Here is the input.
Amino acid sequence: MATPAQEHAHSHEEHAHGHGAGHDHGHHAQSFWSKYVFSVDHKVIGMQYMFTGLFMGIIGAFFSYVFRMQMAYPGHNVPGYGVVSPGEYNALITNHGTIMIFWLAMPVLVAAFGNFLIPLMLGCDDMVFPRLNRLSYQIFLLSALVLIASWFVPGGGFGGAWTAYPPLSAKSQYNMTPLGSTLWVIAVALEFVAFLIGGINFVTTAMNSRAPGMKLFDIPMVVWMIVIASILFMASVGPLIAGAAMLVFDQTVGTGFFDPVRGGDPILWQHLFWFFGHPEVYVVLLPAVGIVAEIITVFARKKLFAYKTVLYTAFGTGILSFFVWAHHQFIAGIDPRMANVFTATTVLISIPIAEMMFVFVATLYGGSIVLTTPMLWALAFIAEFIIGGVTGIYLGSSGSDIYFHDTYFVLAHFHYTFVPIAVIAVFAGITYWYPKMFGKMLNDTLGKIHFWGTVIPFNGIFIPLFLTGMGGDHRRIHNYNNFPELANERMYFLREFATVSLLVLLAFQLVFIINFFWSLKAGKKAGNNPWDANTLEWQAPSPPPHGNFAELPNCYRGPYEYSAPNRDKDYWPQNEPA
Amino acid sequence: MATKPIATTRSATTIPTGRLAVWWVLASEIVIFGGLLASYIMHRLGHPEFGDYASHTNTWLGALNTFVLLTSSYFAVRAHFEAEHGRGANAAKWLYATVGGALMFLVIKTFEWTHEISMGFTITKNAFWSFYYTAAGLHGLHVIGGAIIMLVIASDAKKNKELQRVELIGIYWHFVDVVWIFLFPLLYIAK
Here is the structure.
């Protein structure tokens, strides 16, 4: 660590520098292409990630509409799609899962917010490697295009579920999608490379480029969380990259890595996949928790309760997340003694997460709560995620999991974790930082209509699915009419209820889209700091110009000094000298 | 890109940004190779017959390649030494020597593979050969990538530009070396 004196000297040098740099930028007219398409500016790259991610999210949502219609009204024509064949059904659920995790949650929560926020919140002008940053987005875009292409090749898109277990995924005589499954693996592998490059940039920027005076515990929680998530991703994805290469060789060259007849082992893939797949849950969860932490402190006008504890538990969660993966494999034939160990670690990991939720509740306690739209989203995150967490206890125990495995109970459980992450926290973040991103305020009334129109039907979708799961509905069934004992009226009522709720939820997303574009044009001007927040991004102009700050800020205190005693303002920006 | 952002010039950890990033690259590479080699070792333990398959690999050529790669790493160290003293042209010469080592490694590898494939030991022969070609192939790609980057850095170093990068590619090159040090006993010696 640099001593304060060194940092001080450093800052003087920078200011001289910064002035010159700002001067240059002013005279530098950029063409449309270099400004928006091949930009190296972290904010533009963040937007590119966000819009690509949201666009892919719309496709993923459309897929869910198609297969939910098939679940409730099997064999009927789905408006806007047609009749769903079993193969198409498999491809739809596979790509829905793949998109929502890798092409919505990852790009928006990690890459878009990471890119937009890290340099602004740390008080610097850009990422440390702007061109690598652009490369990361370009590889990501390519991966999205490869995935989309995989749906239109002969044989159709891959339908072996987002976990891609061999032998189904490895042999085209089983999955019937020779090209689709290979393109799917390649798309996912490219996406991993994009996020590795992006993650190295995030971690290095956060370690080295903080504003002079900003100590480790002055870093806003969301930056910490994105950095921890990037490290988790880096440490867990490697074996799956190797696994992806092995799977592609099995598919195309004819090797037998996952084929027992040839001396391979299909369970190996499950280990490689879940060694990544479970930390991945925390890769997207932690940034969501970070976003919620920022919003709750601002709108409760209170210091984050136990900043360091949250941080240490986040590290603890990260480390523990490497020792829980086999809870996905309780019925895959692993040793029951091993299952006991993984049951223990899995139940253990709910402690740090519960601790974070308690910290949020403690932060709210006694605060002057303002129920703005972002605050509603943040509160909903806590409420809904707790349901996901509590139902996870039943699945983490190997005994009950043997009954619940691969039922709709599992599906409802992980949607109660992933929807709060990939939908609720994403909307929380977008509604909170929209003024900074575009310089305009979103309409609060429309925002609240959209909020209630999303959160209520969300519960309407997944509470019935807990019930159908307990009733015996298996995840991979294309048409329940083929299973007379599951085709009764009561089960169909629950399935229809879920589907209708989904339709309502999707309809209310139009409100958000209208609000988003209408506010761009006609929204109230935001000003630099519409929420009276402390963190450095709010001290820059909205939207921040190229180079972000007129003069790069120094940092004097932690990010959550709200309602400090003996001050006339109830906030205290990090860059305001004491 | 005319100028570097101020962010790139900051160093709160006192470690230069480029070096910090290279270490993170290596961290993620270690996990990639770690996953592959762990999978191989698990298979190796469960299949004693892998030892018989491995007896068809050429230990002497593997040892020669180990020597070639280690020597090229020494050249990379010399390049770093010259760069630290601001002698860009000399650093470039040592980097070219390192690239020479990389090429020699690849040539020897090509002879080995050609011979093995002509004997019928292809990637689809059995799980051992699948691992053999995948692991050594992935390592070979790193050798090729490293050599290309080294040529780019050498052409800058000749003009005394970006000399700090000589050290960075050196760190990477040692890593490529270390991976081979793991591959050699696992694939060649353990018979």
